[in-house]
Design goal:
67% of the residues lie in helices and 12% in strands. It is α+β, with helices and mostly antiparallel strands. It has one domain: Up-down Bundle (Outer membrane efflux proteins (OEP)), CATH 1.20.1600. It is elongated, with a radius of gyration of 40 Å.
Length: 450
């Protein structure tokens, strides 16, 4: 008896303590939760950073069209005859005295401070810069699809966890109703015993049942607290943040679309399918880039040079402009094998695309069937709850009149609790199955009716 009372008191205390923060909680709808997660969750930030990296790689590739400007400052000191002779010429300090044989053979040390500005510009590179830029753009599109995939994963996770909070919240309410019902049954049993129509055994049986449902309530309250912490993690906010889920646990609307249409949407819209197509485009650009190595390249180079014996005087300047053609005639057949590598990668990309489309169709079909199953379960469990409630009402009246046993009463109580829990689970599963189907079809977004 004392143990039963202690269990009941502990459950009541836990419920009160966990309910106190509700006074300071902020209402949070499912739509607001998704918007918050898309703004705050670390995985979204990772995807955003990856997109920015891809954009910078496009800019890097584009720089191949622009000239390269370099500035160089150097100092050298030597008595090497060739160095001294050339330095005097570039410094505009060469005189007749420097033609002396002794001075030419054994010159004195000389300084040369050199300032050099160069400009290099590719005139023709056989399309290498073009294909490098196109490759970077295709890779950027693949990263954008990965960002869209991340968003859908975050949305689906929020739907799962938010629905889990709703289910846990309803579980607490069901547990509370079960405790109240068990307490009412206990009062009936005590009244029946006082009337001499039952024994103490019936009362003790109901007290044991009351302790069991009180224990279930404690577990439900704990599950609710854990579910709320999981929701905070899915939102990307501190785990001790307080929100009050305002969207009810109800069935989600489902688009009236046949499975074949969902499959077509998945193949057209899923990020994985688009990435597979883009992978083929990327291989094409890489193959073109590899072929460009077989063609000559033409470059322009301009230079301005200032040479001085002292850092600020005794010097001269000169400039240079010229064109250079470079043609790789043989480099160990590396370019040839690079082209063959691209051809093999092209076959791989085609096979991966077929595999991705087949996998998407299977995922869509499974999600479609799971949703239909969840909807049917929801209809069955809803009817089961109605029948269990009516049956329990009849059993309660019969027990109070002494027409049935306490065993039948407890069996009815347990059946009603189980029916309510199954109905809540079916609604929860239907919501999740709807979100999974939309994700499989590539249409899940923050604006979905879900």
């Amino acid at each position: 008896m004392i143990q039963i009372r202690r269990s009941f008191v502990r459950g009541l205390v836990c419920l009160i303590v966990l309910s106190l923060p509700l006074l300071a909680q902020t209402p949070l709808s499912l739509k607001d939760a998704i918007a918050m997660a898309l703004e705050k969750h670390p995985s979204v930030e990772v995807a955003k950073a990856s997109e920015q990296e891809a954009q910078m790689r496009i800019q890097q590739a584009r720089s191949g069209y622009l000239p390269k400007l370099n500035y160089q400052e150097s100092w050298a000191r030597s008595n090497n005859p060739v160095f001294v002779f050339s330095s005097l010429l570039t410094q505009h300090q060469f005189t007749m005295a420097n033609f002396d044989i002794a001075a030419l053979n054994r010159p004195d040390f000389i300084n040369n401070f050199q300032s050099l500005v160069t400009v290099d510009q590719a005139i023709f590179d056989a399309g290498q810069t073009k294909h490098s830029q196109q490759s970077a753009k295709v890779a950027g599109k693949m990263v954008s699809e990965e960002r869209r995939r991340t968003d859908m994963d975050v949305i689906l996770n929020v739907v799962r966890v938010y629905s889990g909070v709703l289910l846990a919240k309803e579980g607490v309410l069901v547990a509370e109703e079960s405790v109240k019902s068990a307490q009412a049954d206990l009062e009936r049993a005590q009244a029946v015993r006082s009337a001499g129509m039952s024994t103490d055994a019936d009362v003790l049986s109901i007290k044991v049942h009351l302790a069991a449902v009180a224990e279930q309530r404690i577990r439900a309250v704990n599950d609710y607290a854990v579910a709320k912490a999981a929701l905070n993690e899915a939102l990307g906010v501190p785990l001790d943040s307080q929100f009050d889920t305002s969207t009810p646990l109800a069935a989600s609307p489902v688009p009236a679309t046949v499975v074949e249409e969902f499959e077509k949407q998945g193949v057209d819209l899923r990020p994985e399918a688009r990435q597979a197509t883009l992978a083929g485009d990327l291989v094409q650009e890489q193959k073109s880039l590899a072929k460009a190595a077989f063609y000559p390249q033409v470059f322009f180079r301009g230079a301005f040079e200032a040479d001085r014996q002292q850092f600020i005087n005794k010097g001269g300047a000169n400039w240079l402009a010229g064109l250079t053609m470079r043609w790789n005639l043989y480099n160990g057949s590396a370019d040839k094998y690079r082209v063959e590598e691209a051809v093999a990668a092209e076959r791989r990309a085609r096979a991966q695309k077929q595999r991705a489309e087949s996998g998407i169709r299977l995922q869509v079909r499974k999600a479609y069937l799971d949703l239909n199953s969840a909807r049917e379960r929801m209809d069955v469990t809803r009817a089961a709850v109605a029948m269990a409630e009516e049956g329990h009402r009849i059993i309660q009246n019969r027990y109070q009149s002494g027409l049935t046993t306490v065993t039948e009463l407890l069996r009815s109580e347990t059946a009603l609790l189980a029916a309510r829990v199954r109905n809540l689970a079916a609604i929860h599963d239907q919501r999740i199955a709807t979100a999974v189907l939309l994700q499989a079809a590539g249409t899940l977004s923050k604006d979905s009716e879900l």
